[in-house]
## 1
Amino acid sequence: MTVQTQPDAALPDPADFGFSVIAEDDLPPELLALAEQVRHLVEAVAHTDVEREELVAARGMVEALTERLNARRRDTTTVLKEESPQARAEYSTVINAVSGDTNPAAPPLSLERTDDGLRGEVTLSGAYQGPPGAAHGGWVAALLDQALGAAAGAAGMPGLTANLNVDFHEITPLNEPLSVEARVTGTERRKVFVSGEIRHNGQVTATGTAIMVRLAL
């Protein structure tokens, strides 16, 4: 097994494969603000204990807004193109369930390059609860899966998760800043080996390793 430290050449443009592509700068800030407000709405709905009349009224308003927003929809497979002066263009689905800024279901997790991989911070609200006061293990695994896949992509080796192993060391708390890191540890033919961890206040709460199978582009 070898470790690849240099990224491949520029990735193919998803538009060449029939996908709709939108540049990061073309996402309306109003849409990002709306998605963030809906995240607060989701948590409010999950925790509310208001009277039934209030619930009926709120449902009516949300139903009207849903119909209004559905007047124009992007294709589910729309791809977001992210560019920076220091690196080549990278691509991800706009409504990614973990990192999609326009997806209210996403925390969202934002990752940046480091010397050996990627690092980001995220806070999971009460909407992501599993055991009392703790993040659901499925969402902990989802954060790691996203970071591990992104690390492979950032190294120029995008692929799909073939195997994911997650070890839970401590409870991952809600409403607290979490650090997520990931890096490529080796390659073997089309296999890309990656590892990562989640930390809270410097303490590792979960670790993950995965095998990504490179896409044949």
Note: The longest helix spans residues 29-47.
## 2
Amino acid sequence: MELPPQKPDTEPAPLPKEEASNSGWLGPLMFCICLMQCLSLAWYLPDRSHQTRPASVNHFLTSNPQYPARLLKQQLADNVSVHCDIDAEGHAHSCHVTQGHYIEFNQTALLYAERAIYHPALQNGKAVPSPDFKLHINFIIE
């Protein structure tokens, strides 16, 4: 049985000149449209120059603390309070446990508070340090 002869690979035909010239402006046009839309969004952003808020944990960037395995197995629960100083960049310093009954919960909460990413406090729209920030972590079994 013989196979039919194969045609040699051919290159695609070039675009006609009028189609090729139209495609040259499409990329820069799309870039300009996107740039104008992005710049126009600045007019819709709220004015935060008068905004004041306390520091808070950025839950989008910080995962929940791990429940200590031994205490989970024993079905133990606790509420732990940690106090920290949060700087204007959103980093915790001088963290210490102020309330908690089990060393494993206290250690887990302290590690969480030290490694968490925070939204810094705002005063008149500017980030400011937040001394004595209080973080309460409830270890409960659901």
Note: Helices lie at 17-23, 26-41, 69-73, 103-115.
## 3
Amino acid sequence: MALFALAVLLLAFTGSSSATWCVCKEGSDAILQKTLDYACGAGADCNPLHQNGPCFQPNTVRAHCNYAVNSYFQRKGQAQGSCDFAGTATVTASDPSTGGCSYPASARIRKCLMSLPLRDQWMEKEESVVHDIHWLRKSLYLSSLFGRIGPICCCDQPGRE
């Protein structure tokens, strides 16, 4: 089981090179504002875009649109078509994070790691598994703090991205 834990960790770290974000394409402010409004109304976490929020600056329609469509894309699990917005957005491998605003990039392998149970009936006698999960969580958390793999989120747990 320790080998499994090590494999998951290695995939999480190598997954950083395949991280993807969703950003708005070039367009008029009116079109980008419609995309922004749709993303925020359809499930994106737009709280960081509020005044005094960590992603309020730069205070441009394009910057806010980028954050909103990416939040929507990540919350939808990077599902096919969730970064289209009627042709106004596109997937990119370049991290659009700016200053104090970190854009989520949920690599699929670590997406649900934080929601793994610490105790389960198959783990009852495997204390090393519990230790490995704790170790993986701490390692991924520390890596996210230093920008190696982006923020860590939990599956199906709103507000934990």
Note: Confidence is low (pLDDT under 50) at residues 3-17, 107-114, 118-125, 142-161.
